[in-house]
């Protein structure tokens, strides 16, 4: 079944701004929320679709990719290793969820576990590469500002020699119960903010956060054949977890710059080459530079028509994680001469006078057929 349009899923127009998107998402998510539709599988699916649509459209870069390529923009999954978006959807989902439903759902989802361990945030890095770089692959050095575990207190947040104490208010659970009318509601402990521990003597380097911000240098392997819109996940390279929690992930959002001469369609490349009318009529050759750094000679036979395509086998893009290589298609465009001199004009007129129907079978045939069609 074809996937529904993201805009339709949210019930907004293609020109909807951020605010409209957010409010449409909120409305739809409330309507299809599993808590409101227990056991309703179709509502659950709708809820997932709505989340996916919003997750894509709220991000300007992903939205642009979607506008341009549709769902195909994100069908890069299943590449194994550090690739694919499975983990991201999950992370993105819970973040949006907490953003919007945090207060509404009475404290939102419990992200913290006892002891205040908390998974570090995911980081996103936008990287733009050239088609040549996508062809050859490369190792990119990037600098990522990120918070890492404090080395002085090894992440505990407490001054070396001291240790965090179990919170006296919540006895370490991070939650307190309070009676309100008929109900007893549970909420985050106001003393320790859900950590379950308090620090009386905070570490001086990280001021009790357990993390410090630093810029790290990372080397990222961009494999040959990578496509525009691919996300690369570097597991555990995101922000450090809080108080010994696991680190988040780093996502590289890759875009490939449009090329001056080549258009890409999967592994194949297309290049439109304008040739002169005389080369088209008499035949000739020209050279095209290819991405492998060599040149390929294209022979144009006598009587070549506009739109004719020549295939240069194996001169396209490499296929990711395979030894296959696509082809390069040269599409011929014929340039009609302009700014003729008197002499050129005379020659062309003379040429026309001695031309026969056989020189232009298409155009003479076309008008004859059209006349027959309309006049019977
Ligand atoms: Zn510290
Ligand atoms: Zn507490």
UniProtKB/TrEMBL annotation:
<feature type="binding site">
    <location>
        <position position="192"/>
    </location>
    <ligand>
        <name>Zn(2+) 2</name>
    </ligand>
</feature>
<dbReference type="InterPro" id="IPR036869">
    <property type="entry name" value="J_dom_sf"/>
</dbReference>
<feature type="repeat" description="CXXCXGXG motif">
    <location>
        <begin position="167"/>
        <end position="174"/>
    </location>
</feature>
<feature type="binding site">
    <location>
        <position position="206"/>
    </location>
    <ligand>
        <name>Zn(2+) 1</name>
    </ligand>
</feature>
<keyword id="KW-0677">Repeat</keyword>
<dbReference type="Pfam" id="PF01556">
    <property type="entry name" value="DnaJ_C"/>
</dbReference>
<comment type="similarity">
    <text>Belongs to the DnaJ family.</text>
</comment>
<dbReference type="InterPro" id="IPR012724">
    <property type="entry name" value="DnaJ"/>
</dbReference>
<feature type="binding site">
    <location>
        <position position="170"/>
    </location>
    <ligand>
        <name>Zn(2+) 2</name>
    </ligand>
</feature>
<dbReference type="GO" id="GO:0008270">
    <property type="term" value="F:zinc ion binding"/>
</dbReference>
<dbReference type="InterPro" id="IPR036410">
    <property type="entry name" value="HSP_DnaJ_Cys-rich_dom_sf"/>
</dbReference>
<keyword id="KW-0862">Zinc</keyword>
<feature type="domain" description="J">
    <location>
        <begin position="5"/>
        <end position="70"/>
    </location>
</feature>
<feature type="binding site">
    <location>
        <position position="189"/>
    </location>
    <ligand>
        <name>Zn(2+) 2</name>
    </ligand>
</feature>
<keyword id="KW-0963">Cytoplasm</keyword>
<comment type="function">
    <text>Participates actively in the response to hyperosmotic and heat shock by preventing the aggregation of stress-denatured proteins and by disaggregating proteins, also in an autonomous, DnaK-independent fashion. Unfolded proteins bind initially to DnaJ; upon interaction with the DnaJ-bound protein, DnaK hydrolyzes its bound ATP, resulting in the formation of a stable complex. GrpE releases ADP from DnaK; ATP binding to DnaK triggers the release of the substrate protein, thus completing the reaction cycle.</text>
</comment>
<dbReference type="GO" id="GO:0006260">
    <property type="term" value="P:DNA replication"/>
</dbReference>
<feature type="binding site">
    <location>
        <position position="153"/>
    </location>
    <ligand>
        <name>Zn(2+) 1</name>
    </ligand>
</feature>
<dbReference type="InterPro" id="IPR001305">
    <property type="entry name" value="HSP_DnaJ_Cys-rich_dom"/>
</dbReference>
<feature type="repeat" description="CXXCXGXG motif">
    <location>
        <begin position="150"/>
        <end position="157"/>
    </location>
</feature>
<feature type="repeat" description="CXXCXGXG motif">
    <location>
        <begin position="203"/>
        <end position="210"/>
    </location>
</feature>
<dbReference type="Pfam" id="PF00684">
    <property type="entry name" value="DnaJ_CXXCXGXG"/>
</dbReference>
<feature type="domain" description="CR-type">
    <location>
        <begin position="137"/>
        <end position="215"/>
    </location>
</feature>
<dbReference type="GO" id="GO:0031072">
    <property type="term" value="F:heat shock protein binding"/>
</dbReference>
<feature type="binding site">
    <location>
        <position position="150"/>
    </location>
    <ligand>
        <name>Zn(2+) 1</name>
    </ligand>
</feature>
<dbReference type="InterPro" id="IPR008971">
    <property type="entry name" value="HSP40/DnaJ_pept-bd"/>
</dbReference>
<dbReference type="GO" id="GO:0042026">
    <property type="term" value="P:protein refolding"/>
</dbReference>
<keyword id="KW-0346">Stress response</keyword>
<keyword id="KW-0143">Chaperone</keyword>
<protein>
    <recommendedName>
        <fullName>Chaperone protein DnaJ</fullName>
    </recommendedName>
</protein>
<dbReference type="InterPro" id="IPR018253">
    <property type="entry name" value="DnaJ_domain_CS"/>
</dbReference>
<feature type="binding site">
    <location>
        <position position="203"/>
    </location>
    <ligand>
        <name>Zn(2+) 1</name>
    </ligand>
</feature>
<dbReference type="Pfam" id="PF00226">
    <property type="entry name" value="DnaJ"/>
</dbReference>
<dbReference type="InterPro" id="IPR002939">
    <property type="entry name" value="DnaJ_C"/>
</dbReference>
<feature type="repeat" description="CXXCXGXG motif">
    <location>
        <begin position="189"/>
        <end position="196"/>
    </location>
</feature>
<dbReference type="GO" id="GO:0005524">
    <property type="term" value="F:ATP binding"/>
</dbReference>
<feature type="binding site">
    <location>
        <position position="167"/>
    </location>
    <ligand>
        <name>Zn(2+) 2</name>
    </ligand>
</feature>
<dbReference type="InterPro" id="IPR001623">
    <property type="entry name" value="DnaJ_domain"/>
</dbReference>
<dbReference type="GO" id="GO:0009408">
    <property type="term" value="P:response to heat"/>
</dbReference>
<comment type="subunit">
    <text>Homodimer.</text>
</comment>
<feature type="zinc finger region" description="CR-type">
    <location>
        <begin position="137"/>
        <end position="215"/>
    </location>
</feature>
<dbReference type="GO" id="GO:0005737">
    <property type="term" value="C:cytoplasm"/>
</dbReference>
């Amino acid at each position: 079944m074809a996937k529904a349009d993201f805009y339709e899923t949210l019930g907004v127009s293609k020109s909807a701004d951020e605010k409209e998107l957010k409010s449409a998402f909120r409305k739809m998510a409330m309507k299809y929320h599993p808590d409101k539709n227990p056991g309703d599988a179709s509502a659950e699916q709708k809820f997932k679709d709505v989340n996916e649509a919003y997750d894509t459209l709220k991000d300007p870069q992903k939205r642009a990719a979607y506008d341009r390529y549709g769902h195909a923009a994100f069908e890069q999954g299943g590449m194994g290793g550090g690739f694919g978006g499975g983990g991201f959807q999950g992370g993105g989902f819970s973040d949006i969820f907490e953003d919007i439903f945090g207060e509404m759902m009475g404290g939102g989802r419990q992200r913290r576990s006892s002891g205040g361990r908390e998974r570090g945030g995911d980081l996103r890095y936008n990287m733009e590469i050239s088609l040549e770089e996508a062809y050859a692959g490369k190792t990119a050095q990037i600098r990522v500002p990120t918070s890492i575990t404090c080395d002085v207190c090894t992440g505990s947040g407490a001054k070396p020699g001291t240790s965090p104490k179990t919170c006296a208010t919540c006895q370490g659970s991070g939650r307190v119960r309070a009676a309100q009318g008929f109900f007893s509601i549970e909420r985050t402990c106001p003393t320790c903010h859900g950590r379950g521990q308090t620090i009386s003597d905070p570490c001086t380097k990280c001021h009790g956060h357990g993390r410090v911000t630093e810029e790290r240098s990372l080397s990222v392997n961009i494999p040959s054949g990578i496509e525009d819109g691919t996300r690369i996940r570097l597991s555990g390279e995101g922000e450090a977890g809080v108080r010994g929690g696991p680190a988040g992930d780093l996502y590289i959002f890759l875009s490939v710059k449009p090329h001056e001469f080549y258009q890409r369609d999967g592994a194949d490349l297309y290049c439109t080459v304008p040739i002169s009318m005389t080369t088209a009529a008499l035949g000739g050759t020209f050279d095209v530079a290819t991405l492998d750094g060599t040149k390929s000679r294209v022979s144009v036979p006598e009587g070549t028509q506009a739109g004719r395509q020549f295939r240069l086998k194996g001169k396209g893009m490499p296929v990711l994680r395979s030894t296959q290589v696509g082809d390069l298609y040269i599409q011929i465009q014929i340039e009609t001469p302009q700014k003729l001199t008197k002499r050129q004009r005379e020659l062309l007129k003379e040429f026309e006078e001695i031309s026969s129907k056989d020189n232009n079978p298409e155009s003479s045939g076309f008008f004859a057929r059209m006349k027959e069609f309309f006049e019977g």
